[in-house]
Design goal:
Layout (H helix, E strand, L loop, with lengths): L1 H25 L4 H6 L2 H18 L5 H30 L4 H32 L14 H16 L28 H13 L3 H28 L10 H4 L4 H5 L8 H20 L6 H21 L2 H22 L8 H25 L4 H4 L9 H9 L10 H17 L4 H18 L3 H7 L6 H7 L1 H25 L6 H20 L3 E3 L2 E3 L2 H13 L9 H13 L5 E4 L8 H5 L17 H9 L7 H10 L1 E6 L24 H8 L5 E7 L2 E6 L2
Parallel strand pairs: 3-4
Antiparallel strand pairs: 1-2, 4-6, 5-6
Helix pairs in contact: 1-3, 1-4, 1-7, 1-8, 3-12, 5-8, 6-7, 7-8, 8-11, 11-12, 11-13, 13-14, 13-18, 16-18, 17-21, 18-19, 18-20, 18-21, 26-27, 26-28
InterPro entries: DUF6541 (IPR046671)
Keywords: Membrane, Transmembrane, Transmembrane helix
Amino acid sequence: MWVQFIECFVLGIGILLIPGFMVLKSLSVPAWGALGFAAPISIIWLIAMGVLFGALGVHASLATMFLPLLLISIVFFVAVFVRKKLLITHEGSTNNDKAIQSYSRSRDEVIIIGLTIVISLVLGFAIFVKQLDGPDSFIQEYDNGWNLSLIRSYASTGIYSVFGPTVYPDADFIPPSGDINFYPATWHCLAALLTSTLNVSPALAANALNTVLSFVIFPLGMLALLFGLFKSNRRWLIFAPVLILAFQSFPWRLLEFGPLYSNLSSFAIAPAFIGSFIKLTEDKANLKDRFIFGGLSFVTLIDMTLMQTNAVFTCGVVLIPYCVARLWAISSTRVGKRRLGMLRVGAVAGFLLFVVAVWAFLYHATFMQPIVTFNWPSFLSKRQAVINILCCAISSDYVQPLLAVLIVAGMAFAIYSKRNRWLIVSYVIVAFQYYVCATSDGVLKHVLTGFWYTDSYRIAASMVFVGIPLACMGAYALFRVCAKVFDLISAKGHDGACVGASIAAGVLLIGLIYYPNFTISLQPVQTAFGMLEEKYTVANSTTVENVLTSGERAFLQEVEEIVPDDAVILNQPYDGSAFAYGLYDMNVYYRYFGQNTGTDSETSRLLRLRVDEWESDPSVAQAIRDADVQYVLLLDEGDDSQESRRFLPTPVNKEGDFAGLENISEKDAPGFVEVLRDGDMVLYEIID
């Protein structure tokens, strides 16, 4: 199965990078930009094709959705390449000095890009992929019930529209919950394309796609952002390949918490938006550049909206100080000194008022209320929150002291060099959001962090977009200080020694930041990334007692062989059977968690509360007929004291919510015949 994982991984890279790279290179975008900004182009195309084919009711595939884009990009690339060759032949050779300078610059860029890809993949496979208990292992948490089921739905139907997603695509019964008009399901569509194309399980496709997004797309996008920020100071990039993945808050924690895969995907392309927006607003950008990067900004904005909308707000928060700085700089070059101060204040004040107005409008918008009113309770004291921020421990209890030092050094260097000082303000704003989110409950918390579901993990993930540039600047500044000290006690001007020292410093950074857990004098020492490895191992284990054990998975496969494909199976989703549709395409009634919160249909309520009374209650009998239920599945039947019982720990699953199913054995309810049993796992058939 690992061969299938690699195939899925390579296909994912090809889908997300090749077309966009060829289009952007044809438009003379540098290699770092062509790679870093490539993914949004493929994503917007696939979104559009999915919506189009879905509206037409046409079942799509990778061939029908992706091949047209690939062919168009190849033709465009070849046409531009031939045209450039003809122009060079016609005009003669270019200036030799410029050619040498361009070659040297391109060589340095290729080295940095290559190092970034290699280091990111090594870290990703060593820390994340290696901990998977098989390529199709998955995290048994609340959000994954929906994730796997929706991937299965898209893959089985060939309908990949992000509008009106459903996990009941071919059901002959009314689903327990109502239709969803909109859900940011782009990540699910991408995973489903991999699932259907290579005929792999949704869990395997999800793992492969997450590996691509986390350790290829995000590093390349972040590198493109850094190239844009440090355009005249490329030496500041020397430690970027090592530091791009240094923050445990992203992508690492989102691979485990939730898991928040939609947010992972939108944040993976967020650097592309920030980077293209910065290129769009540069003073030296010509009309062609503004057209290219303006188009990229717009495309990426749409992508993020349809992947996980809060990424748009994250980019907005990060870029507000940048926009203020640009307005201040632009206004200072357009008028005389007499009215300069007034114009500066007016431009900045007008922009900030616009931001506040948009924020307030969206915060009070009806369609945003389920999001901005959602509440995660506070969990830290004010003092502890400050310590967490200062120690870079905002997404776990494990500090990253070296990273904290680099960020502080980066801030000092930004102030000293008078470059990119807006990054400091952005970092402080996001840190304040985290502080409010973690320490308080009330209106201010929802106003500042409601667009992120008041979720501290999503806020913490937002800090990387300014934290990484600051850390890169700090690492360079500290390295230069050390190099100058070294020069004072040795021969000066040895570039080879400086290169060797930078390599040694990079290796040292890798060891200090990413080192796993270890022991000293038989005492365990836990590190930030050692903790992550442990969490990945436990969360993906197929042998530990979990919601859905290996024995229960084997039982589900037996049930799949016995029950006809069109027969509906009533289930208690919190015993692990919510994963049955996503994993095995089983026709279970409840296909994700949270369908018992009181918003489900009357039929659903009758079934889960009183299905055991169907022979004596005509309304329940009618509900069984309406839902076409023929079987009842229980993976943890019996008394609550049984040690083998494992239910998803969530406040949504309240005692008695599935009393009808639980009472079948307790009351020896008539009308149910035991078809298959293994311990506390049982399948009943409803006999009329």
